Amino acid sequence: MKAPGCWYSGNHWWCNNRVGAPVYQAGSEQVVAGYMYSNPSWFVCRTEGGAHSGGPHPTRHIWTQADNGAWGWMHDDQISSETNPLPTC
pTM to 2 decimals? Predict the structure, then answer.
């Protein structure tokens, strides 16, 4: 069964995600910039071609702001909503 898609509301894209998911620093897929403790959380856009992270879109990463205010990328496999509706970065 296909997961429901992310939705647009209040100038942000919202998706269901894993609580405590790491958000990786821009330019690094290994340095954690912060964590996302909220669910659902808001996201900006998606990109393809990063490191293989598993899930239905194994090289997709989603741009967001971690709960500590740091900007970065969350691996798509940490998001349970379908991320296809998000715009590309």
Answer: 0.90
